[in-house]
Amino acid sequence: MPSEPTEVQVRPGVEDDLEALTALYNHYVRETAITFDTAIFTPEERRAWLLSHPEDGPYRLMVAAAPDSQRILGYATSSPFRAKPAYATSVETTVYVDPHAGRRGIGTLLYKALFEALSGEDLHRAYAGIAQPNEASARLHERFGFRYVGTYREVGRKFGRYWDVAWYEKPL
């Protein structure tokens, strides 16, 4: 794994982070097919999402922040995999890194903190859907023990074209 950046603090996300987290996510909504959301959000529209990730339990939000400015450099989440009760021991995980902070090991730092936080929870599997192509995300997930399990072909339409999503799973 890449060396961990010592200038980055990883901590649970809090309501004061909402504006910065929304701005970071909106970049990916506007500029990429990494998320299949197609319309940007206001911070108020994202408040319920933030509040659905408390500091304990299986659904977490970890943020990476610059310690001097507290500028958000990225975040990782674990969220419900599916709504039906039998899926309760499965989570879907994701990482978003500020495009100006890439290749600094922030994704690695975030996933390390997220999986440490989840280690005491009653969870069986983590899943990650990666819109294709995205080699950097595939490598990050594989480093954390995820393995490729299949691809949904042309499952999402954004920017006038269809996108595949590769699915990965990790035992917890």
UniProtKB/TrEMBL annotation:
InterPro entries: Acyl_CoA_acyltransferase (IPR016181), GNAT_dom (IPR000182)
Keyword presence, Transferase: yes
Superkingdom of this protein's organism: Bacteria
A Pfam family that the UniProt record links to this protein: Acetyltransf_4
Gene3D superfamilies, alphabetized: 3.40.630.30
Domain N-acetyltransferase positions: 8-172
Record has Transport as a keyword: no
One Gene Ontology molecular-function label: acyltransferase activity, transferring groups other than amino-acyl groups
Keywords, alphabetical: Acyltransferase, Transferase
Protein name: GNAT family N-acetyltransferase
